[in-house]
Amino acid sequence: MLRESITILVFLEINNQRINNSSVSFGVSLPVENTFSAINVTYSYGQKGKISNGLIKENYHKISLNLCLDGIWFVKRKFE
């Protein structure tokens, strides 16, 4: 399963100037064989801030790895 998103957030305000954080993310979910579990891999590219009034601009790259465990955790067991 492929996933993508675009995000624009405002986290900080310094001297009445907003510091924006915008990013683009792409990811894929890979199922683990013979289970309901999956491995999720995501790549993000983003920018924080802007170059004006003595502020700085930061570009960043981010790779995330996530393991989603599912299956027998909450299954009611049957005994014979």
Structure notes:
- It is a single chain.
- By secondary structure, this protein is an all-beta fold.
- Helix content is about 0%, strand content about 65%.
- It has no helices and four strands.
- The chain has strands at about 1-15, 15-30, 40-50, 55-70.
- It has a four-stranded antiparallel β-sheet, with no helix packed on it.
- A hairpin with a 7-residue loop joins strand 3 and strand 4.
- The relative contact order is 0.23.
Number of helices: 0
* Gross geometry: elongated
Distance between the termini: 38 Å
Radius of gyration: 20 Å
User: Strands of the biggest beta sheet: in what spatial order?
Assistant: 1-2-3-4
Which characteristics define this entry?
0% helix; 80 residues; elongated; single chain; 4-stranded antiparallel sheet; mainly beta
TL;DR of this structure?
0% of the residues lie in helices and 65% in strands. The chain has no helices and 4 strands. The mean pLDDT is 83.
